[in-house]
Amino acid sequence: MVNSKRKGAKGELEWAHWLQDHGHEARRGQQYTGSTDSPDVVTDMVGFHCEVKRTERLQLYKALEQAKNDAGDKIPYVAHRVSRKPWIVIMYAEDWLTQQTTETNA
Length: 106
Description:
Blueprint: H1 2-21, E1 26-28, E2 41-43, E3 48-53, H2 60-71, E4 75-80, E5 88-90, H3 93-105
Parallel strand pairs: 3-4
Antiparallel strand pairs: 1-2, 4-5
């Protein structure tokens, strides 16, 4: 359990640093018990709720459901990376389309 928590914290820090390296403000969130007030990484990207998974075998839908359950009215996404591979972001297609429409109309 301690090793998985440590690995989770390391993954969250990695994702926060990746975002910082790409021009965003980012830090690890307050680790409560999963709510809209406690994303894994807090960023300046308004309207998103982040769940970070740094694992070799991601249970994709389970991770996305966890993000959705914690997101409130924000758009949930999962930042995921396996060893020696780049970060990917996973989100529901409907949320992606909504975000694209919102940006186009802005």
